[in-house]
Amino acid sequence: MTYFIDRRANAKHKSAVNRQRFLDRYRTHIKRSVEEAVNRRSITDMERGEKVSIPARDISEPVFQHGPGGKRAIVAPGNKEFVEGDRLRRPGGGGGGDGAGEGGASNQGEGMDEFAFSLSREEFLDFVFDGLELPHLERKNLVDLDEVRQVRAGVSRDGTPARINIVRSMREAQARRIAMRAPIRRALREAQAALAEEERKDPVLRNPARIAELKAEVERLEKRLEAVPFIDTYDLRYNNLIDQPQPSSKAVMFCVMDVSGSMTQAHKDIAKRFFLLLYLFLERNYEKVELVFVRHHTAAKEVDEEEFFYSRETGGTIVSSALTLVDEIIEARYPAGQWNLYVAQASDGDNWDDDSVACRKLLVERLMPRLQYFTYVEITPHAHQALWEEYERVEAEYDTRFAMRQIVEAGDIYPVFRELFKRRVAF
Amino acid sequence: MTRRQPIATGSDWNFEILDAFEREIARLADEYRLDTYPNQIEVITTEQMMDAYASVGMPVGYHHWSFGKQFLAVEQAYRRGQMGLAYELVINSDPCIAYLMEENTLMMQVLVMAHACYGHNSFFKGNYLFRTWTDASSIVDYLVFARKYIGECEERHGVEAVEQLLDACHALQNYGVDRYKRPSPISAAEESRRQAEREAHLQAQVNMLWRTIPGPLREDALPGLVDQEDPLGLHEGGRYPPEPQENLLYFIEKNAPLLAPWQREVVRIVRKLAQYFYPQRQTQVMNEGWACFWHYTLMNRLYEEGLVDEGLMLEFLQSHTSVVQQPAFDSPYFSGINPYALGFAIFTDLKRICEAPTQEDREWFPDTAGSDWRETLEFAMRNFKDESFIQQFLSPKVMRDLKLFMVVDDDQEEMLEVAAIHDERGYRRIRDSLATQYALAVREPNIQVYAADIRGDRSLTLRHVQDGRRPLARSVYPVIRHLHQLWGFPVRLESVENDEVVRRYHWPLAEEERRE
């Protein structure tokens, strides 16, 4: 007796729990690998998983085993030229001829030292963003249609036939039938009883008129009973859908970078990573993230990603030109009520002296009131200049939504990034 | 030759075709009098196969990180293409569950049905070890019970506490079997029903065992006076346990002084599951050899009857030969003796000995040569395990075919010595040595509970009976650390050779040892 079962449609990922248990158990190991990867990887590379290796001895499941040494006999196949009594040199490692395949010794050689496995992209990013939370994820309730979702909310008396709730409708119908028939039934029973009583009387005493009248009554009531409709439009119930406003799921991120002559490619690479991390982070928190690249020297320009990171410019630096452009773009395309606005700025700290004050004014008066968050990283090993000082004053004013840090080399990015976005206590 | 009318051609399959093939295989198997459990054949995807792998083929299992590790390892190997997923996975249960992978070609599906659903299945039902140690009808229910129970423990006592306990139990799971005593059958309903009862009972037993300790023997605790409460005379001095115990997990379950009842139950679950796998560890060669023998026989019958075409048959032969191939010891593909190859060779040769014995066979197998092959194979399948099977049936011809030779590796000698080869002088010694190689007692160190100091410091002493000066691997320390967690008091382990203690291990380590 045999039967076939098609299980293909059944749940996959039966091992998901066990897999997660394993990842949790070796969290510290994995995190170390992930952090190394974040520092090492090139930018276009961030969107995939990561191979993680854990020293095998750290995750071994020990059991009692024979160790190397002692005297033992091994039977092996494939003899070609040996005869009894031959003496052979020990093969290096000594594990080669172990017929029972128990691999008793830890000197089995390479390949066993590391337990390697792959994290999926999701798992990788989970580790990257572990413990982080974007500041001020205030989700804006919007009324425009895009931001509304229909959700089930009980039943209602009207709706389209497609959403009819059969069970509830039939129940209503039954209740109505019971309610409507009860008085008729009662009258019918009374009439029948009266009729029966009349008919039981002695034929002499019967009142034929009364009998005819009662018979007519019974007939009329029976008809009425039958006339109670099985189902009535009045009974119909529909699954009710209501519009529920959705939190805003759109964010736009402005990448602002100084591309003046003083910014080297190494500086830009560092900036690039910072932007990328921010982007990945936003991407996970919002359904839709748009990127706007604004680069500037003495004048600002909106460019595409390629040009943003890889074209070379020379000249002086006027930071306010970029901030003005960002402000204009927000006015024109990203009304603050519908978009969560983030600005990330990278620079080496150079600016025309007079301009730094203008930057602060622009930020405090125009930009900060509308932004979710403004981050500024200064990529320089040198002392700070006027821009940093002015920004510090902005930070003092908007300390929960404004963050600034100094970065010296690529390895600093991730810690800085973490610090910028580390879980803040709600205030 | 019969008229060729294959059931299907090409490599595509559907359920009707599978069903038709299954009926034909069943008919042929019946002709050969293969006694099987009913089959439950499940078609699954690659991913589900990896899941099944990770849980050692169990359809349900409790959660533990080690299964996750297993899964990641399988997935990694599969993705890199280092490993094809085994084409079959079959569970010793009643009905016998076998998995067919969706991606397999028609040939593979037919082959797996012959191999797993009739080969392994009949082995599970017939072999004495499986009959003794496993209860096919209740294993799935028991697994469900185990998963539920451990899930509840996790809720009540925290995932971490349960995980640590399981880690410790897993380290000892190869020592969870009474090798010489038939176990009571496991049954989920029974387990659930009696579990509460047992918890109370166990605790009472343990309490009694440890009742008078750790204080010194009191005057009034002399034997005669406590007879009523101590019928076993446990407190009368002498070693406890009086005889060494080989079932470490059972000893822990019953005697560990500090375990909570739920912890004892978890130890029991691990022990019961280890017991379920115990026959598999001892019959790998036989089990695979038997299944290969039958898929080979059945596929050839299908071909003879014209039910499969030449294309499918060629594909089958290609697959079959790669499965039963034995690379030589110096080949880069060598990784020990291939149980499929060895088992298949012995069973095939056994059939030959029955049907066409040579003079040599008559000398070596006077009872077997010329007997009815079907009955002889059935007898071999039913009544042996790898060790005794090889000892009994490994023929000189198979040794010659595989070119077996025996090397003695003695760490006191500079060179290895070839002690025997496949010739007249060597056959018996090779056979003895290979059989020993498959003996569980040799493959795994022989470790038993020697004494529990129930009147003193409550320490537990294990004895490792060492053979051929083969020491324990370094993993001994983490294992006795786990044992220490379960026992709760110091654990000692002595390696004994020729009645002499040659090496001692203990846990916890003293301060200065830790620093080393």
Q: What would you say about this model in short?
A:
The complex is a heterodimer of chains A (about 425) and B (about 525). With about 425 residues, chain A is α/β, with parallel strands linked by helices.
Any chance you could write out the topology, listing elements then pairs?
The complex is a heterodimer of chains A (427) and B (516).
Chain A (H helix, E strand, L loop, with lengths): L1 E5 L9 H10 L1 H14 L9 E6 H4 L11 E6 L10 E2 L25 E6 L1 H8 L19 E9 L9 H35 L7 H20 L10 E8 L4 E9 L6 H21 L2 E9 L3 E4 L1 H6 L8 H15 L6 E8 L5 H15 L5 E7 L6 H12 L4 E6 L5 H8 L7
Parallel strand pairs in A: 8-9, 8-11, 11-12, 12-13
Antiparallel strand pairs in A: 2-5, 6-7, 9-10
Helix pairs in contact in A: 5-6, 9-10, 10-11
Chain B lengths: L14 H17 L7 E6 L1 H9 L10 H16 L8 E3 L4 E6 L4 H21 L1 H6 L5 H19 L1 H13 L16 H22 L38 H8 L5 H22 L1 H21 L5 H14 L15 H17 L3 H6 L8 H11 L2 H8 L2 H7 L2 E6 L5 E6 L5 H11 L2 H4 L2 E7 L7 E6 L10 H12 L3 E7 L2 E8 L3 H5 L1
Helix pairs in contact in B: 1-4, 1-11, 2-3, 4-11, 4-12, 6-7, 6-8, 6-10, 7-10, 7-20, 8-10, 9-10, 11-12, 11-13, 13-15, 16-18
